[in-house]
Amino acid sequence: MLDYPESFRELIKQLRRLPGIGPRSAERIALWMLQSPRARPEEFATTITRAVQHLKNCRLCGFFSEQEICLLCSDPERLGKELCVVEMATDILPLERAGAFQGRYHALGGKLSPLDGIGPEQLRIGELLQRIDAEQPSEIILALGADVEGEATAHYLAEMIAPKGIKLTRLAQGLPAGGGIEHADPITLQRALLNRRTYS
Ligand SMILES: [Zn+2]
In the chain, what is the straight-line distance between the N-terminal and C-terminal CA atoms, in Å? Predict the structure, then answer.
């Protein structure tokens, strides 16, 4: 049966490994890469190789960096301010872009999930406790997910951090911006009511 040449089939095979890419999309992308004058596939290949060689996770916070220590953690202005604990390194950028926070971050690399075999040792909790001792943040903010595992992780961290005597807070939960009451689920409404604050 007639098929594409071997090297081209291999390219399609590699593209299919990308998340969300099915066989038809892989074929379309492969054709575009090799036939479109705008594709510049060599540049693409070099960029991937460079990213793989240079990109690592910051030794302190876990965010992406080309150095041992990322830009945020190297900024002396941020030392000793709040330390914001998140689940994943990818949570850091949205919080930073929100522009409401001046301190440092710490990504745990996941959340406690005993059923999936993820206990405290699998997360960067030991590193967090060491950082707290070394950096003495003014406050620790738990910015974890509102699901069962996120709650369990927050609870566990709260117990570990309490003896250190540092102010510990967690993100407020409530109505999403632009969201109406009628579309909110009962848990969100319950938390929005519990976390209500004085009108100012
Ligand atoms: Zn960092």
Answer: 73
